Amino acid sequence: MAWALLGITGVAAVVALVVWRFRVVLPPLILAGAIVFILNPVVTALQHRGIPRAVGAGLSYLGVVALVVLLGFLVVPLATDQAEDLRGEWPEIQAKANRWIDDRAEQSEGTFLEFTRADLEDAFDSDLTFTEQLARVRRVGVRVLHVLLILVLAPIIAFYLLVDVPHLRKVAESLIPASAHDEVFVVAHRLNRAIGGFFRGQLAVALIVGVICSVGLGVIGLKFWFLVGMIAGFFNIIPLVGPWIGGIPGVAIALTTDGPVQAGLVVAIMAGAQQIDNHFITPQVMQRAVRLHPAAVMLALLAGGTLGGFFGLLLAVPTAAVAKIILSHLWRTYVLNEPVEQLAAAQAAADAAPGTGMVKDVGKAAEAGS
Predict the structure, then answer these.
(1) What residues contact 267, with CB distance under 8 A and at least 6 apart?
(2) For residue 309, which of 96, 118, 27 has the smallest C-alpha distance?
(3) Distance (Å) of CA 101 to CA 112, 248, 266, 333, 340
(4) Which of 274, 270, 233 is nearest to 250 (CA)?
(5) Angle (nearest 5°) at CA 300 between 281 and 290
(6) Three-state SS across 69-127?
(7) SS3 12
(8) Helix (H, G, I), strand (E, B) or coil at 23
(9) What averages of pLDDT result for each successive group of 10 residues across the chain (370 residues)?
């Protein structure tokens, strides 16, 4: 057992080193994998109706484009109007923010936290030479180009993967020794359920939370309520933190336009959206896809954000779920000596248990076609 653990650790270290060396290819592959997990149930359902996978993948892409265009017609005019209003009112908002900072600075006089607005401005100012500014512009341009390449390459890679999913599965099965087939199938089934359920469920949760935040902020009369709600919904792709990140610009706008009372209402709306999400939406949508304690989720987000930035935050939870599945399987199989048949029977019973989450039905469709 000790030698096996040492071998697994060595292999993992080599794989991690190779992945880190070629990390530039990871973002498009990660985004492509997310697209595959989201659209594969649709392509599989179309295949069961006699439509070739290539045609089904094309129809799925067309459906996504049509949905984006429809949402654009519904959302873009409102978002554009609010963005124009924000640009027009920005000088007044900035002036109010400066007065608020001056008031806080005056209150801090003679205390340990004494500061002035000039101190804050100096802290954020940078005296860069022209060459340094040019280098900064070049770095930003390279990053923008990199993001554009990711957004272009990922859907193309995902399309070919969607078409070849059955073939890739057969190739993978042919590489597995017959003696380990059942065990690998059990683990792969759990991984597919966890990763696919996370991406599909989190996308649905982000949309629902964005709508809730926008409606709530619109009811209390917050200016630019739709933009703030969209920010909250977008960042809710990262579990547990979306409404709080959306609350930062919401509170800032409330403080500089209406006052502390409305800022308190914004906090209440965002906290309420977070509680609704945690207790009703996520349990219904995600169901049993990712079984992680909230503390484990927060630690995973901290580690992912520190190591990988935004992509690290996005992948922290599914990565933690994958690690939990693999480690728990190794412990049950090789330490507790539970037979693989027993684990497979327990998994089948969990899949057959009645549920109310939408991801359960989508997961069944994906598993039927995998």
Answers:
(1) 247, 251
(2) 27
(3) 17, 16, 20, 60, 63
(4) 270
(5) 40
(6) HHHHHHHHHHHHHHHHHHHHHHHHHHHHHHHHHHHHHHHCCCCCCCCCHHHHHHHHCCC
(7) helix
(8) helix
(9) 74 79 78 86 88 90 87 74 73 74 74 66 58 70 77 88 86 78 79 79 82 88 82 77 73 79 86 79 63 74 76 79 83 77 68 46 42
Report whether 47 contacts 165 (CB < 8 A).
Answer: no
Q: Which residue reads 């089948």 in tokens? A: 348
How many other C-beta atoms can be found within 10 angstroms of the C-beta atom of residue 357? Answer: 19
Query: Which of 329, 326, 325 has the alpha carbon at shortest distance from 292?
Result: 325
The token duo for 286 is: 């995600």
Residue 250 in contact with residue 222, Cβ under 8 Å? yes
Q: How far apart are CA 257 and CA 97, in angstroms?
A: 9
The one-letter amino acid code at 254 reads A
Q: What is the DSSP string of 198-227?
A: HHHHHHHHHHHHHHHHHHHHHHTT-TTHHH
Angle (CA) 203-207-211 rounded to 5° is 165
Give the residue among 42, 327, 44 at the shortest CA–CA distance from 191. 327
Give Cα 350 to chain centroid, integer Å: 26
Neighbouring C-alpha atoms within 13 Å toward the C-beta of 107:
6
| Nearest CA-CA partner of 328 in 164, 123, 187 | 187
Residues 6+ apart with CB under 8 A from 44: 165, 365, 366, 368, 369, 370
Place of tokens 């917050």: 222
Question: How many Cα atoms within 13 Å fall on the side-chain side of residue 350?
Answer: 15
pTM attached to this predicted model: 0.63
- Measure Cα distances from 160 to 43, 61, 72 in Å: 12, 12, 27
Joined together, the tokens standing for residue 75 give 């959302």
- 317 near 198, Cβ under 8 Å? yes
Tokens 């920005």, residue located = 90
CA distances from 141 to 1, 27, 138, 144, 302 (A): 51, 18, 5, 5, 28
Instruction: Please report, for residues 55, 277, 363, the alpha-carbon distance to residue 39 in angstroms, rounded to integers and kept in the order given.
Output: 13, 24, 11
